[in-house]
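Thanks for the sequence, V.! I ran GNAT family N-acetyltransferase right away. Repeating your input here for the record:
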Amino acid sequence: MTDNSAYRIEPRVPAIDDYMRLRRESGLTPFSREAAEKGLPNSIFGVSLMLGDETVGMGRIIGDGGCFFQVTDIAILPDHQGRGLAKLIMTALSDFIATLPKTAYVSLIADVPANRLYAQFGFDETAPRSVGMARKVV
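Predicted structure:
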């Protein structure tokens, strides 16, 4: 078992530069600074995974604050992956989800094999009843 005691979760959305770096270096699609500056302050909840003073991971919940929420931006720098740290992030997000209205709908888009992690936190695949769809602004 990996010792993760040096890592800590801070209940805050990462700073813009950390957010952009984490998305880029972890392999997520990067966003423009303009988009990040507009989007991050509108987060419902966020966590930063810290190692000392360095932000090495993150996760956010976005949504309308009452009915609909989405887990997004789960990212960990490659040098820190494979240590069970995504579970730390998801535990913090899940604890927040437990405080939401009981009728809230919480969704996420899972890349395989991360869907196995999310299932551990109560997320079920919705197919074939519904499927995730996306539209990219170009």
